[in-house]
Amino acid sequence: MKKLVILITLIAACFMAIQPVQAKAKKEKVLFYVHLHCDACVQKIMKNIAFEKGVKDIVCSVENQTVEVTYDANKTDIATLQKAFEKIGKPASLTPDALPAHSEDEEEHHHHHHH
Fold it and tell me: How does pLDDT run across 9-54, given as a tens digit for each residue?
């Protein structure tokens, strides 16, 4: 019978381990528009923002110039996250308007057409 007791204890221990995870993390997602030049910028954000309190997940896109942050709304909020971005010199906006316009690229393309 001893084996059975050990099994029950193990199962109980597993349930106990699962409980705290469901301590009502209020997961929210927010999409920030951040000027990302390259992977180095992404790494910088990943390294710094990942350690912010309540941050669960970060998805950066250099292509779209966006950073999607999944966070625990009980521990942090959008304003706090934005401050964290500002601290590392990457202001995060909730609208794409703040991004530098891609005018330089367009101008370069125009030059090529003059040949």
Answer: 555 555 555 555 556 779 999 999 999 988 899 999 999 999 999 9
In terms of Cβ atoms closer than 10 Å to its own Cβ (0-12, 13-18, 19+), residue 85 is: buried
Residues in the chain: 115
- The CA distance from 27 to 25, in Å, is 6
Question: What residue ranges define each of the domains in the chain, with the CATH number in brackets?
Answer: 24-97 (3.30.70.100)
Secondary structure letter of residue 96 according to DSSP: G
Q: What is the radius of gyration, based on Cα positions, of the chain?
A: 22
Distance CA 52, CA 76 (A): 9
